[in-house]
Amino acid sequence: MLSERRLEVLRAIVQDYVGTEEPVGSKALTERHQLGVSPATVRNDMAALEDEGFIAQPHTSAGRIPTDKGYRLFVDKLAGVKPLSSPERRAIQNFLDGAVDLDDVVGRTVRLLAQLTRQVAVVQYPSLTRSTVRHVELLALAPARLMLVLITDTGRVEQRLVDCETPFAETSLADLRARLNSRVVGRKFADVPQLVQDLPESFEQDDRSTVSTVLSVLLETLVEETEERLVIGGTANLTRFGHDFPLTIRPVLEALEEHVVLLKLLGEAKDSGMTVRIGHENAHEGLASTSVVAVGYGSGDEAVAKLGVVGPTRMDYPGTMGAVRAVARYVGQILAES
Questions:
Q1: Cα(first)–Cα(last) distance of the chain, in Å?
Q2: What whole-number distance in Å separates Cα of residue 65 and Cα of residue 168?
Q3: Which of these, 331, 255, 268, lies nearest to 294 by C-alpha position?
Q4: Rounded to an integer, what distance in angstroms lies between the CA atom of residue 290 and that of residue 337?
Q5: pLDDT tens digits, one per residue of 19-59
Q6: pLDDT tens for residues 68-91?
Q7: What are the Cα distances from residue 202, in Å, to 172, 198, 207?
Q8: Can you tell me the distance from the alpha carbon of 195 to that of 125, in angstroms, rounded to the nearest whole number?
Q9: Is 115 helix (H, G, I), strand (E, B) or coil?
């Protein structure tokens, strides 16, 4: 275990390197921070930190920079989440309150996160597998053609056309709409197939085929839309950090194009806590020089999706963690009120 003093030296090195982009020397540390010890003692502490792999010497520089292991210890032990100021919180609320639907909420959230953190922002759409049904609407477009509209508790709307073998009377359509909603509203998507399996048998013989067709489209929609959707923004922010990527920024950009990779980075939606993955903790090789800060958001106590940012390991972790957490909280409030 590191002594408290050496932890303080590590904290100072991380803060200075993140702020100045320059390797940090013992003389600068004693001048900038009230460490209460001589430069010689700080040099000894830095040598010990280097021996244990928390800091490293880049090239021939006299200064030191944090390693992935050093950033990990900083995040786990030394970095509190920096609270946002009242103006910042008001700005978040005002920006997100203007959203008109779920797509707008997600789009605004991506832009806001990218602006607040100056990193790449990633927002996952609320997972249908973790959503509940708010309403199922059935509309007659023609005698034998219907529109099925599925609305979730998170405001997600899915529309499907249903072509029936025979015309379906308006009274039968109203009856199906009422019975369907009475069974599925407020229920998890995973429960819907079992809840509606015997519904066709409760209708007249002539209508059963159409009811079965409607249910088939509904269930197909539930299955299809479990594929997770992501929105990404602020990729241009990475160009500000060109020297933070050892060789080229290209592997990072290529990894960010793969949504499967990003979903794995964000982690399981059910895990609503803050996740910070640093450098080589990211399984994808192209992201070994980046860090990911992610948190779950939802309309209640349960997270329905994740949002977060991707940036270089030389990141303002307390500020980024505070911004990500605050935005997630506001998005959750909007979903709860929608």
A1: 49
A2: 71
A3: 268
A4: 35
A5: 888 888 888 888 888 888 888 888 899 999 999 999 998 87
A6: 999 999 999 877 788 888 888 888
A7: 12, 7, 10
A8: 25
A9: helix
Tell me the residue length of the chain.
Answer: 338
Q: Bridge-partner residues for 152, per DSSP?
A: 133
Q: What angle do CA 329, 276, 288 make, to 5 degrees?
A: 135
Integer angstrom CA distances of residue 241 from 9, 121, 143: 25, 15, 60
A 10 A CB-CB count for 62 gives 11
Radius of gyration of the chain (CA): 26
Q: Which two tokens stand for residue 34?
A: 């009230």
Residues 274, 284 contacting (CB under 8 angstroms) = no
Among all chains, which residue has been given the structure tokens 């203007």?
98
Which tokens belong to 142?
A: 């023609």
- Bridge partners (DSSP) listed for residue 279: none
Alpha-carbon torsion 259, 265, 266, 270, what sign?
A: positive
pTM to 2 decimals?
A: 0.77
Amino acid at 101: D
Tokens for 127, please give them. Answer: 């997972």
